[in-house]
Amino acid sequence: MPDQSIPEARTVKAPPGEAVSENASPGEGVSRRRLLATAGATGLVLGAAGGAVGYAAAPAGATPLTSLGADRAMFHGKHQPGITEGLQARGHLVAFDLAAGASRKEAAALLRRWSTTAQRLMAGEAAAQDDTDVARDAGPSSLTITFGFGNSFFSRTGLEKQRPASLDPLPDFSSDQLDKARSNGDLWVQIGADDALVAFHALRTIQKDAGSAAKVRWQMNGFNRTPGATAHPMTARNLMGQLDGTRNPKPTESDFDKRIFVPASGSADPAWMANGSYAVVRRIRMLLDDWEKLSTGAQENVVGRRKSNGAPLSGGGETTAMDLEKTDAKGALVVPINAHARIARPDQNGGAAMLRRPFSYHDGIAADGTPDAGLLFVCWQADPLRGFVTVQRKLDRGDALSTYIRHEASGLFAVPGGAAEGEYVGQRLLEG
């Protein structure tokens, strides 16, 4: 779980009753499934990111609704949605395998259906056919739906020559106890939203759209803190109680695109991956019973940061640069040599970086009484060998946190760039 922080959401606020993204053009329509409130004078409330948003005021004595449900991410764009947006309150990760006998033609038809569904649902509209009405009363709720291709997809569809070298299987790591049935897959879908019913509706619709072309290989459910639950925007906490993601690369950094997205030209990747990215997905069990036996001080030494505010043990605040050479009165390093935050730092790994965008998960209590809980780790990078693999190999050689986690499932997926108007995701691969 490398030490990096999630950027703010790209969804932007619009006039009352409307929600568009920063990439929206003036002619783009507004969701017809707007957040409802009784008509009246227009008021202002604070949204999850602290910006002003409008709503129609409710009658006196009634609790007004916020615009959380009206926030909208855009389907069409340079990159697929669900990568640079901020953390979402609810998420589903699901992998599919193509049905026996399904070909490139069936795969193209499936991606076309899925893209149509994603576009409609992200706009807050009903599914094109047989909508279940689960999300009838909600707005888009920042819904994002993201699609990727696994290594096996290319041999199943006769597209081996288009398979990127970056999709070569990940190496084995010492903390791996991987369940093959819950790893990899021909196709991968990431769903995120700020409302649980909106996210489930998308999951159910995507599954139904698969029809006879593909079947679910595995599916995992995750969550994060709901936007607005804290007094001000802040780095999320994981189930260990630590601020998780302090040093994530940010879109404002000059080399952000170079590190996260495949360039449109001059890349060794095939042309269809232009403006795309690679997603590494890991189901990481946190051994919470063991972790919670540690004192707060011992937990902080494992991580290398204060549990209260995420500040490095060397001093300062959350964003203060960590002083790796600082020692205490006895001459011992203040940030232990095997602290997670020390080992995971990009400047300790040749500049290797990845954009982490995870979900926590809790799948109940195991037969031995321990919680089946942890992190659905999702990270994005232009090159997984230079990103995830470089950092994980370093962590594998002595990270103090390894004692308290276990990697139980894994996947690597090529996520193409966003679909232009009139296109479906993956069209340049499947029809190129």
UniProtKB/TrEMBL annotation:
Q: Where in the cell is it found?
A: Cell envelope
Highest taxon listed in the record's lineage: Bacteria
- Is Membrane tagged as a keyword? no
Domain Dyp-type peroxidase N-terminal: where? 80-224
UniProt region (Disordered), positions on chain: 1-30
Supply the alphabetized keyword list: Heme, Iron, Lyase, Metal-binding, Oxidoreductase, Peroxidase, Signal
Which SUPFAM superfamilies does the protein's record reference?
A: Dimeric alpha+beta barrel
Q: Which InterPro entries match?
A: Dimeric_a/b-barrel, Dyp_perox_C, Dyp_perox_N, Dyp_peroxidase, EfeB/EfeN, TAT_signal
* Domain named Dyp-type peroxidase C-terminal: residues: 235-419
The record's EC number reads 1.11.1.-
**Predominant location category:** other
Listed cofactors: heme b
Q: Which reaction does it catalyse?
A: heme b + 2 H(+) = protoporphyrin IX + Fe(2+)
What does the record note about the cofactor?
Binds 1 heme b (iron(II)-protoporphyrin IX) group non-covalently per subunit.
The entry's function note states: Involved in the recovery of exogenous heme iron. Extracts iron from heme while preserving the protoporphyrin ring intact.
Name the family the entry cites.
Belongs to the DyP-type peroxidase family.
Q: What is this protein called?
A: Deferrochelatase
